[in-house]
Specification:
heterodimer; A: mainly alpha; abc type-2 transporter like fold; 3 domains; four-stranded mixed β-sheet; 69% helix; B: alpha/beta; Rossmann fold; four-stranded antiparallel β-sheet; 38% helix; 28% strand; globular
Chain lengths: 666, 250
């Protein structure tokens, strides 16, 4: 690979920057939106809440009193927010409300005050009438209830005194705001909660338009072929465009943060109380700008990648919506409790920026981890942009030409088929599998394994006219590989457990998750043998036939072993449909994929998979997971021995090309 | 300085037709100071052939060499030798012709210190003085085509490829373009010129190849084609060659 030509990158950068700055749409997104919408979204809700509160405080509610109301007048009269607009001995409360003579009417029964004064057994009821369709009447209702409570307390006090009981002294409770000493947070809590979401969302919007303009726009305007005919390195083109998008994003970020700062200075200076404190000092502006720059860089690279896939601007706008939702979802990491940048999350792109923002705004950050986060983000962005540079030359995207489906398949590219299979299984699993398993965890799991997992894989391979035995690596295995698999099973289980423990250290699974898991596996009321068949053996066979069989068999001709392990492993992890199980199952999936590739057979994977699931059931029923960890030398020794056997039993499963169907034109 | 297409083949897939050869084993060559015409109706495979030579389409089989650089093995070197003009290529609407020429001149590694003079020279040559600093979005079709030509030659490439460059142009602008093509020949450029206008080919091309349904049916000078077909006018020659080979004329 040749080194980057910075001169070329600068040429592309200058030209694209000039072009983008001459586009009014980009300028609207870059300047107008941050100037108006950023502060509007952040400051307006608080201003609105402040005004509503002031309005509530100054509002007076009209109250009508009917029936035996006379003794109640003094209590209602003492309340500042209430004005008695109508009183009547005999009147229909509904009519007073509907005639809008009062917001709310309190109806006292006949001889009400006499009854509550003397007769301890009587329980006269006061009825309140109001129009529930009007929000302000609900506020009036609260006020009226308050008055009635006060009135009741007064009469209780009076009764106690009349009975000669000394009333207890009334407690006086004083509320006061707790001001934390040594508070180092850079911004107030509402700002800390809203700003990360706002930055993720608005930066995505600000960045996607320049990205679409410089790449998809160039493709749509038919200038891209000319650029590609010039002797320019594709990476230079992409990095030049990437820098333009970064600059536009950074400008939008800067403008946005400054406008929030200015609006907040103006908006909060008029607030007379600290009902909602909106504090965002200049230090917070600087630190947010520093921390959000990696976000700009990452979003720019992802937008560039997205734009590279689009043939038209319209198509790009269609892809933009899910992209925006993903960005919005990523910002939610800020609201997850217990997550810390220093726990290794600094190495996970995007998530690390969300956490950086959270920690910086709360004033509890470590510069080293912020720097790690920055470096990881830049590295990730550079790599994503590099990947995007390979899409520029796509003939399909440039001229709409494509190879036939059969030619693609004959070249070993089954990407769309694997995508379709995975999507089908995921959807079936989500809608049918979960329903079946909630009906009966064991029998439902058994049916799910066959119908949802195995059947689609077989149907697809039959449709592709591929040999099930060869594609799924179902040939008779070597005895050594089976023995080796059996011996490494405890080690695989331990690795999976350790990964789960590591994950729990970073993001602990809620107790509800662990208890539900135990209840489903152990306390399901089914006999052990049925549990083993439904939850251990069937998944060990069917899931292996899907993942290490069909999916691996279809992907193997195109990808290298390490990438295969990652791809199939991640799919396997995602398939388990639980945030807290993704990582351990993905790691197990990677190990199983590696085993399948090494031995060339799916049978050893089935053994390990069945062993793993069986151990989960047996350990939960008759012991606990710690038993295996405490006996760690056993899995290690067995594992080493197993690996030795596997080393000497390497298989050579070959990918089988599909036979050429006669009825297709070629 | 030459261009050689050697059994160039490109297969496409169409849901209705299945797989088909858009370009079927086409071979021809063009030397320094020569204009080679690729003649054929729309959809004959001219543009696909030229796109393969300019390296933005990858041949399914065969190859092409530009100044001995292979389009498959050495695409960047090939691109340095080429200038491409087409009627349907776009321009950067928000840039001026001068900015576009500077951009492509820099990308093609034309010496920075000479670039301004080169742009001025081309501006005079193609009579672009009046609009060289106006944004392209305001230019007429003829003006835009002049900008396209200027962009293609700003780095002074030895090989110029023109894909139906006069489509949509008025007579006056076509004349300017024809003069430019002949000028290129005079200064020793190798020019490949595709067209479906027979009179234009008769006027400009030293040698020509008749292409139809992806196949090169005949090639040679106008005199050679006349001798072989017994016809005088190129249009008649084209029809006779197509009928002789049993191809459908659509």
């Amino acid at each position: 690979m040749t080194s980057l030509d910075w001169d070329e990158i600068c040429v592309v950068f200058r030209k694209d920057l000039l072009e983008v700055l001459r586009d009014y749409r980009t300028l609207i997104v870059m300047i107008l939106m941050p100037v108006i919408i950023y502060p509007a979204l952040l400051v307006l809700p608080s201003s609105l809440a402040h005004h509503l509160q002031s309005d509530m405080r100054s509002k007076r509610y009209s109250v009508g009193l009917v029936g035996d109301y006379k003794s109640a007048v003094k209590f209602f009269g003492e309340t500042k927010t209430i004005t008695i607009t109508k009183t009547a001995d005999e009147a229909e409360p509904e009519k007073i409300v509907s005639a809008k003579l009062a917001d709310i009417v309190v109806s006292f029964p006949k001889d009400f005050f006499r009854l509550i004064d003397g007769n301890l057994d009587s329980t006269p009821k006061v009825t309140i009438f109001y129009d529930a369709r009007k929000d302000q009447n609900l506020m009036a209702l609260t006020e009226v209830r308050g008055v009635l409570n006060h009135m009741r307390s007064a009469y209780v006090q009076k009764r106690l005194e009349s009975l000669g009981v000394k009333a207890p002294q009334r407690y006086v409770v004083n509320f006061s705001d707790l001001k934390e000493l040594g508070d180092q947070s850079l911004a107030s809590e509402p700002v800390r909660n809203i700003l990360p979401f706002l930055l993720f969302t608005m930066l995505t919007v600000s960045i996607i338009y320049p990205a679409l303009d410089v790449i998809t726009g160039e493709r749509e305007r038919n200038t891209l072929p000319l650029l590609l005919m010039s002797p320019t390195d594709r990476r230079s083109i992409m990095y030049g465009k990437f820098l333009v998008v970064c600059v536009m994003g950074a400008a939008a970020l800067l403008i946005g943060l400054l406008s929030i700062f200015i609006f907040m200075q103006i908006g909060t200076s008029s607030a007379s109380d600290d009902f909602i404190v909106m504090r965002f000092p200049i230090q917070a502006v600087v630190m947010c700008g520093f921390v959000a720059l990696p976000l700009v860089v990452i979003l720019s690279s992802l937008s560039i990648l997205l734009a590279s896939w689009c043939k038209t601007f319209q198509q790009g706008q269609g892809y933009f919506v899910p992209f925006l939702f993903v960005a919005m979802g990523a910002s939610s990491v800020c609201s997850l409790p217990g997550l810390k940048l220093s726990s290794g999350i600094a190495l996970i792109p995007v998530v690390n920026i969300a956490l950086s923002l959270k920690e910086v705004l709360s004033g509890q950050y470590d510069f080293i981890w912020l720097a790690v986060s920055l470096l990881v983000s830049i590295g990730f962005a550079v790599y994503v942009t590099y990947l995007a540079s390979h899409i520029l030359d796509s003939e399909r995207l440039l001229f709409g030409v494509a190879d036939s489906r059969l030619r693609r398949r004959l070249s070993g590219d089954f990407g769309p088929e694997v995508g379709l299979l995975a999507l089908t299984v995921f959807l079936l699993m989500f809608y049918l599998g979960q329903t079946l398993q909630s009906w009966d965890i064991v029998v439902g799991s058994l049916i799910t394994q066959v119908v949802v997992i195995l059947l689609p894989a077989i149907v697809l391979l039959r449709h592709l006219k591929m040999s099930l035995v060869k594609t799924m690596s179902l040939e008779r295995p070597r005895l050594l590989s089976l023995l080796g698999a059996l011996l490494i099973t405890p080690l695989c289980i331990v690795v999976s457990m350790l990964v789960y423990k590591f994950q729990t250290g970073i993001a602990p699974a809620p107790e509800a998750f662990t208890t539900m898991f135990t209840r489903l596996i152990v306390d399901n009321g089914k006999p052990l043998w049925l549990c083993l068949i439904g939850i251990a053996i069937a998944p060990g066979i069917c899931e292996e036939l899907l993942f290490r069989g069909a999916i691996l068999g279809l992907l193997r001709p195109r990808y290298k072993p390490i990438l295969l392990c990652v791809l199939v492993g991640v799919l396997f992890g995602l398939f388990h449909m639980s945030v807290f199980r993704v990582l351990p199952t993905a790691v197990l999936g990677m190990l199983l994929t590696g085993l399948a590739i090494w031995t060339g057979s799916i049978w050893p994977c089935m053994i390990v998979h069945i062993g793993n699931n069986s151990s989960a059931i047996l350990l939960s029923k008759f012991g606990n997971e710690e038993m295996l960890l405490n006996w760690w030398p056993v899995p290690i020794v067995a594992g080493v021995l197993g690996l030795f056997l596997l080393y000497h039993s390497r298989g050579s499963a070959q990918y089988q090309k599909p036979e050429k169907p006669e009825d297709e034109k070629i | 300085m030459s261009l050689d297409a050697i059994n160039l083949t490109k297969r496409f897939f169409d849901p209705k037709r299945g797989e088909f050869n858009a370009v079927d084993s086409i071979s021809f060559s063009c030397s320094k100071g020569e204009i080679f015409g690729l003649l054929g109706p729309n959809g004959a495979g001219k543009t696909t052939t030229l796109r393969m030579i300019t390296t933005i389409l990858k041949p399914t089989a065969g190859t092409a060499k530009v100044n001995d650089f292979d389009v498959i093995a050495q695409p960047r070197q090939v691109r340095k030798q080429l200038g491409f003009v087409s009627a349907d290529t776009g321009l950067y609407e928000r840039l001026t012709p001068r900015e576009i020429l500077t951009y492509f001149g820099r990308l093609s590694k034309y010496p920075k210190e000479k670039l301004k003079d080169r742009i001025d020279e081309i501006t005079v040559m193609l009579q672009m003085e009046q609009f060289v600093d106006s944004r392209c979005e305001k230019l007429s079709t003829g003006m835009r085509q002049k900008v396209s030509i200027a962009r293609a030659i700003v780095h002074d490439p030895p090989v110029i490829i023109m894909d139906e460059p006069t489509t949509g142009l008025d007579v006056l602008t076509s004349q300017v373009l024809h003069r430019f093509v002949l000028q290129c020949k005079e200064i020793g450029k190798c020019v490949v010129f595709s067209s479906h206008i027979m009179s234009e080919a008769e006027k400009l091309c030293d040698r020509m190849g008749i292409i139809h349904n992806g196949k090169l049916l005949a090639a040679g000078t106008l005199e050679e084609l006349r001798r072989e077909s017994g016809m005088h006018y190129l249009e008649d020659i084209f029809l006779s060659v197509v009928k002789e080979t049993g191809s459908d004329v659509t």
